[in-house]
Specification:
The protein has 220 residues and is an alpha+beta fold. Helix content is 27%, strand content 32%. The strands form 3 sheets. A 4-stranded mixed β-sheet has the order 1-2-5-4. Strands 10-9-8-11 form a 4-stranded mixed β-sheet, covered by helices on one side. It has a 3-stranded antiparallel β-sheet with strand order 3-6-7, with no helix packed on it.
Length: 220
């Protein structure tokens, strides 16, 4: 980006910036396109220097994209639709991974819901589109949170020893969403599935559209 100036305001230090590229890019796909008009100036929250908040200020242009229509231009310092810079979101996500949500919220000066939205955005951006390729031996289990009132279903790749999919809820319907995303071709490449003896997960694994060539069910 290009820094055009800075000033001290009641909310902190406001830095005037603009993208380095002259031609605006679609905020969704990043393709360059003709400028449509200019939106009102807005602020993006940046990392603080001690107790002094920093903000980036810019009036984004609107872009006429052939695929997505008129959108707000992509800016290099923040994700599309976010009110926070990339460094701010990366720091928030790292803190949320290493400490509780309340401490993260207080340290970053944001609310609970914003912490969750930032974590979701960062995880989505970092998810590899190839994570579901080459699956042969997987494990399925459920995890509870919020004092065991909510559940998520977790699918792991045993060979690469990593989590490849997480879905809200538990049971047959949730696991079927994984097989839908995996697709019939990649599903047929599965040789084994490890899970507990619950009937719900077994039912999903044994359905014709989601059945691997061999299914192993048992405690592990």
């Amino acid at each position: 980006m290009v820094v055009r100036g800075a000033r001290l305001m009641p909310q902190g230090v406001v830095v005037e910036v603009r993208p380095r590229q002259r031609r605006p890019r679609c905020g969704v796909c990043g393709r360059p396109g003709p400028g449509y008009d200019t939106s009102a100036a807005r602020l993006w929250r940046h990392l603080s220097l001690g107790r002094t908040p920093f903000w980036l200020r810019y009036a984004p242009r609107r872009v006429e994209c052939r695929e997505h229509g008129v959108t707000v231009e992509r800016v290099p310092w923040a994700a599309h639709g976010s009110h926070f810079t990339h460094p701010f979101e990366e720091t928030t996500a790292w803190l949320a991974q290493n400490m509780d949500k309340t401490a993260t919220r207080r340290l970053m000066g944001i609310n609970w819901r914003t912490v969750g939205a930032i974590v979701e955005r960062v995880v989505k951006a970092r998810l590899s589109p190839e994570r579901l390729d080459g699956l042969y031996v997987i494990g399925v289990d459920e995890l509870s949170f919020r004092r065991h009132h909510e559940y998520v279903t977790v699918v792991v790749d045993h060979l690469k020893q990593r989590v490849v999919w997480v879905g809200e809820g538990k049971g047959e319907k949730t696991l079927l969403k994984f097989f839908d995303e995996l697709g019939p071709e990649r599903t047929q490449e599965l040789t084994h599935i490890t899970m507990d003896m619950g009937a719900a997960y077994q039912a999903a694994a044994q359905r014709p559209k989601g059945r691997p060539s061999s299914t192993a069910a048992g405690r592990c």
